[in-house]
Amino acid sequence: MVRRKPDVDADALEGVLERAFGTAVPVTYQRTLDGLCTQVYRIRRDREVFYLRVAEEADENLETDAALLERLHELGVRAPRPVYVEPFNQRIGRSVLIVSEVRGVPLEQVSVRAAAVEVLQEAGADLARLNQVPVKGFGWIRRYGAGPLQGSLDTYGEFVTEGLPTPDVWPGPLAEVFDSATIDAIRVMLGQEFTRPVPQATLAHGDFRPAHIFVQRGAYTGLIDFGEIRGTDPFFDLGFFHLHAPDILGVPILPSLLEGYERIQPLPPDRLEIIRRSAVVHGLPELCGWLDRGLPPDHPVVATRISRIKELVHEDLQ
Question: Are residues 57 and 178 in the same domain?
Fold first, then answer.
């Protein structure tokens, strides 16, 4: 789907590590397997583990991320701690950030039902704290430095429709994969979401799923991977989770998450309908992008998204 970026020049990378950690203790590094658009390296220094991330674009300053992670810790969110940041590294041609490790394994690897429920509740509470951070504007966070968080769009309506077929070509590629009843239902949901008042944007993790909720010996240890942060409303992360998260050990995964979330931030009575709608609406642009780039509907990732959106559109919330 996305071609993996080449490795960073080894000499340049080692220069960053020397400035960050000195030379008294040997440091080793290895690129992680899951970084495609983003180059991420696992750093080992004696018994400590850190992660180095390279900005995706030359104009991104990861001081934004470092300052945000500090803010999240002040709010009580368990997340990586910033260790070292360079606004721009001339040899790499990008900003670089080193953060501490969140120990453990992804929630998907938990094998005890009761532990999964408790972890989901604690992760939900942390998500609620994160979702309270204000952002000026909507959309992708602009990485300009350590100032206030700024989105790339002015209104929530722009955010909802970004990446979707315009009215003059609607439903565009969606007509290839959904029947007319599903298309009609999606149109209604988009209209409802477009007109929902969201006057103030708040921070979204942007990629909130079980793979980024970490657990050690059955206990919640924190959230990872803040590379997709954006300004929107709290239902974006909850909808994204509902779109992507399978049941784990038969656990009612969304109710467990919401139980923890509402310990910090109450949600309205119609929260399940808004979450479902958010999952559909914000799951569509990526699907349209895949189809526009020529990926076939039977591609495993595309087929999974089509199936999940159909399921959500016709889901019975009673």
Answer: no
